[in-house]
Amino acid sequence: MNTANLNNIQRTVEGLNLSRKNGCKLVASEQAIYNKPKDKDKVSIIVCGRNGFETMMGYLLGENLADAIITDPNLNPYAIMRTAIAVDRGKGVLFLCGYEEQERSAVLSAGGLLEEAGFSSEVVYLWDNIDPDATGDESEKRASAGIYFCTKIAGAAAAQGLSLKETYYIAREARALTKSISIGVRQGEKQQESNSILEMPAELELGLGSPREKECRKTSFRTAKDLVERMAFHLLCESRIRPGDTICAYISGIGGTCFSDLCRVSFLLHQILEEKKMYIYDTVINPIPFKANTLGVTVSLMRLPDEMKPFYDAPCRAFYYEKG
Question: Which CATH superfamily is domain 179-308 in?
């Protein structure tokens, strides 16, 4: 990371710290933002945030959540190793990262360096994003907002004193229960005069799947409920959620999406799922959007079996998210 970028992130972190003087204090390093370790004898959780780290910083970095978030898009295995050592609490480090080749390669290399240095680590690769036009090729797997659920569950498992291997398997189970989908203005499309993803002209094509990428399914809709119904349809098909199941939802924005849009999506999603006899146990709306020059919404659903509820309900605290 160059000096200018590091200075900007350091100022960002210090500004956040000053806004909550009695809360947890964050530290900015060359490639990550992390909490100073307090309690020992605990698995540490590191999330690869990269381009989306601002979305995660206020919600995933904190007590019984993630101990560090990787911020630099240009991953350096040695910097990742140093971050892991900085937050290590004596029981090893669990990495939660996407499935893109650069992330996998860098984290795998960092794991080898940690092993040579005498530290234990495990990696859970995430691929919760649904792309309706995917061919099934390994290179098409993408992580999305489902990382929130995996971090919440893994952080709670670590806080309860579980071993690195036990925390690893619980995070994998959370991954298997989670699916996400995004919809937004496709690249190159003019956003017209509307600043609402729910009030776009009917003739405007939206991208379903990964609207930040050039190739994604073109779609249009008549009403806001139609848009949310299409997202819910794909989520329910891919996740195999059935009537009677208990669900948690996470809703976040892309680019210039306003908070009121996210709230309306939440309302419509609840309406649609209740009509299908599905019980929404909890909904989290993250008002901090993924940074992009577009408008969009991401919805994640996690089926919540009874054995996962103690982890989901466990107390946690970040700058803008608290439970228990």
Answer: Dihydroxyacetone kinase; domain 2 (3.30.1180.20)
